[in-house]
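On clarity, I found the account of how folds are encoded harder to follow than it need be. For illustration, here is how one protein appears when written out as sequence plus structure tokens:

:::
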Amino acid sequence: MYTTRILDINEQDYFNQFIAGHPQGHFLQLWEWGMVKAGMGWESLPLVVEQDGIVKAALLILKRPLPIPGFKKSIFYAPRGPVVDLDDEELCQVLINGTRQIAKDQGAIFLKIDPAVEVDNHRFKQIMTNCGFRLNETGLDFEGVQPKFVFRLDIAPDENTLLSNMHQKWRYNIRLAGRKGVTIRGAQNKEDLKTFYDILLETAERDQFLVRGYQYFEWIWDYMVARNYARIFLAEFEGRIISGTLGLIVGNKFWYLYGASSNLDRNVMPNYLIQWEMIKWARQQGCTLYDFRGVSGDMDENNPLYGLYRFKKGFGGEMTEFIGEMDKVYSPLFYWLWNKALPLYKKMSHK
């Protein structure tokens, strides 16, 4: 018999062990990711399905109150959840049905998920439809909360095979960086973290994208890096840090989350070597999957995001399209207000 419940703080390791050992485990479903998000106004609700005292499925639900005067309403979001056997409809039903009472108690108007499940998995899509979810259209670029299109690389083969599968220019640039004297090391302390963040700000200004405040990265350091779920890699050249990356690791999977590079010394190709060193490090930790994260699904060379696609593709991975965002609605009226009226109100109030 299956039972569902929300875990308490003393069961953090119990929860994480299941996430790390499951094929659908993801760093965004770790207990610690909920701690990172707590500083941004989210509350964690780690839901599990158990059978005879053993976890069979899990869903880290993030809850955020809505700014609707007079109503205690909230939204639920489970990034890259659920962590469940994708073919087991009964287990999926038990897990999702377990959210209904929690949603009622917490005033949630809907639950959003964006599973790391490939778009051609029609059975899982049907199971989620049977569980009451509806698909959202999020476009080809980065309109969704999480990227719908990612590049992933199987890193189980040996290093020589991985190198031979790369674009020739990528292999050349990796070796060039080494010949020029670029070296890669892990960040040791928050002074290194601050240097990484300063370079990230430099990158954001150059490439015109927004970046979160420094405190967000301090939370990642405190809850993820310090607990061996994340690592910052730094590229050094002639005594200066000129490039950096943030990667996360859970089970046999590694994700490249952030990359930053100085405006100086870009000709020594640190970004290529740092990716290669990250791949090698992930293999040493027992990983078999390296996820470069998001790219645009529009591969037109005129797309401003094409350079990102080209860089990641050169390492020999494959582009993967996920199912996308799905919502389970608990309150149709407030869901309509959230999607239609609230965005319009925000737009008008900012004019």
Remarks:
- The chain has two domains: 2-139+323-349, 149-321.
- The chain has eleven helices and 14 strands.
- Confidence is low (pLDDT under 50) at residues 345-351.
